[in-house]
Amino acid sequence: MMLLAMLETSAAVDLAREALIIAIVIAAPMLIVGMAAGLAIGLIQALTQIQDQTVSFVPKLLAMAAVLVACLPWLMTRMLEFTRRVFEDAGGL
């Protein structure tokens, strides 16, 4: 009985770890582009002394949306693989 509980706990921990890794991988492209765009826009704002919030928000939003559209097939493949693996493993528990 104790061994079964340990196996279930181990499976739950592995599933949670894998879910967090998949979430990081899925979010990384958009976050990296948002950070790079924010850095570039901040540098431009510092050089031109334009301190308007919308000047930094709109380009970052557009850059992140473009990356989302470009990476969407890859992101969906990763999410579907993870979901399929979760449902397949759930049948074995």
TrEMBL record:
Primary location group: membrane
One Pfam family of this chain: Bac_export_3
Membrane-crossing residue ranges in chain numbering: 20-45, 57-75
Repressor in keyword set: no
Gene Ontology biological process terms, A to Z: protein secretion
The UniProt record lists the keyword Cell membrane: yes
Membrane topology value: Multi-pass membrane protein
Compartment annotation: Cell membrane
GO CC annotations on file: plasma membrane
Keyword tags: Cell membrane, Cell projection, Cilium, Flagellum, Membrane, Transmembrane, Transmembrane helix
Family to which this protein belongs: Belongs to the FliQ/MopD/SpaQ family.
Protein name: Flagellar biosynthetic protein FliQ
Provenance organism: Neorhodopirellula pilleata
Lineage of the organism: Bacteria, Pseudomonadati, Planctomycetota, Planctomycetia, Pirellulales
